[in-house]
């Protein structure tokens, strides 16, 4: 047991050079700023749900948290050990990169692609047990696997253990992927759109199952979704936090009752407007609060606050510097000048649509 967060990210940036473009000699390649200046701690047995549109960088940030994506700058630590220094063998390495990676697992949107089509469920689930419990014999492994299959409702487990992935439904495949991740005894599971491909009726069951097993395995979840409704369900049920991402930045984060009960960032309000079951006045919520402009190109994001081209509250002061996050409530942070009492924003002229005409925009998204 340690007081260190399981994962701690500080001022993380992840920039990608765009591939495939033929550049005139001497021109620099274009760079996508997939994640920019994000800091986030994930303690033990915690749930953080990250939400944002396609291309906002949430998946890239998730992969950075579990050590499968190297940040361009900033630090990512597992229980106080810098993940990439462990990988490079730099400085004091108390926890090896191999051990770190085993402790940070992922379940994907498409479990069918993640499971080997030529291996039975039994075979797929034996691998993590052999790695984490090398002393277990064949009988003990079989018993443990059957116990887990029964726990997630796949009964009779003896039958399910013999099946191949194509003999399972999508929901059953996702349960096997979840068991496989949990049998590694992870400290954190990145659930990347893990319920998005399931029928709506099965999504709640899967999220309930994740939280039920969280207590048994004492793991944390970084849950990533483009769907605010799903994110609010899992964060709300677990007393977790919800984080809102926009164009590579974490613009608002906090406990669910604060962020959705008293949203401070105009983008959070826009996401709530687009999610009628979360809108306090769904029947009479009026027109979209977003300016009618495409999502900016992440290769050429707007200056200042990146949301200013779509923000209904934008003023000229928003186009200069990127706003720093400020604490507005209990563990509730927001990156918007409206959260500052005495910022020049309040005396700055409103930004009109005419003033935005010359900004380059695109609905193309290259990083998720
Ligand atoms: S800083 Fe300005 S543009 Fe950005 S969200 Fe706040 S009001 Fe809108």
Automatic annotation (TrEMBL):
Locate the compositionally biased regions of type Polar residues.
359-368
Record-linked SMART domains: AAA
Entries under CDD domains matching the protein: ABC_NikE_OppD_transporters
Q: Where is this region: Disordered?
A: 347-368
GO molecular function of the protein, one example? ATP binding
* UniProt record similarity statement: Belongs to the ABC transporter superfamily.
Quote the PANTHER family the UniProt record gives: D,D-DIPEPTIDE TRANSPORT ATP-BINDING PROTEIN DDPF-RELATED, TRANSPORT ATP-BINDING PROTEIN
Name it: Oligopeptide/dipeptide ABC transporter ATP-binding protein
Native organism = Halosimplex aquaticum
């Amino acid at each position: 047991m340690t007081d260190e967060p399981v994962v701690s990210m500080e001022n993380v940036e992840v920039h990608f050079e765009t591939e495939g473009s033929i550049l005139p000699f001497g021109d620099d390649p274009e760079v996508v700023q997939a994640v920019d200046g994000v800091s986030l701690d994930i303690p033990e047995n915690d749930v953080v749900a990250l939400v944002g549109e396609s291309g906002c960088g949430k998946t890239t940030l998730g992969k950075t948290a579990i050590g499968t994506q190297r940040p361009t700058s900033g630090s990512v630590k597992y229980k106080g050990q810098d993940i990439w220094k462990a990988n490079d063998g730099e400085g004091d390495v108390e926890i090896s990169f191999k051990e770190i990676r085993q402790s940070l697992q992922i379940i994907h949107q498409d479990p069918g692609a993640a499971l080997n089509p030529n291996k039975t469920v039994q075979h797929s689930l034996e691998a993590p047990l052999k790695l984490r419990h090398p002393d277990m014999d064949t009988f003990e492994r079989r018993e443990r696997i059957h116990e887990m299959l029964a726990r997630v409702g796949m009964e009779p487990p003896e039958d399910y253990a013999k099946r191949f992935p194509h003999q399972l439904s999508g929901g059953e495949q996702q349960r096997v992927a979840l068991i496989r991740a949990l049998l590694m005894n992870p400290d954190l599971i990145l659930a990347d759109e893990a319920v998005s491909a399931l029928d709506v009726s099965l999504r709640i069951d899967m999220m309930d199952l994740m939280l039920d097993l969280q207590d048994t395995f004492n793991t944390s979840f970084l849950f990533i979704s483009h769907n605010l409704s799903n994110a609010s369900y899992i964060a709300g049920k677990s007393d977790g936090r919800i984080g809102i991402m926009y164009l590579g930045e974490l613009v608002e984060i906090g406990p669910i009752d604060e962020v959705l009960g008293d949203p401070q960032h105009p983008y959070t309000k826009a996401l709530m407007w687009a999610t009628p079951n979360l809108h306090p006045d769904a029947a009479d919520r009026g027109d979209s609060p977003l300016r009618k402009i495409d999502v900016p190109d992440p290769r050429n994001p707007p200056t200042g606050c990146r949301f200013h081209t779509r923000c209904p509250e934008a003023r000229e002061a928003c186009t200069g510097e990127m706003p720093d996050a400020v604490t507005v409530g209990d563990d509730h942070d927001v990156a918007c000048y409206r959260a500052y009492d005495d910022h020049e924003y309040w005396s700055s002229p409103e930004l009109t649509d005419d003033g935005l005409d010359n900004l380059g925009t695109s609905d193309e998204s290259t990083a998720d």
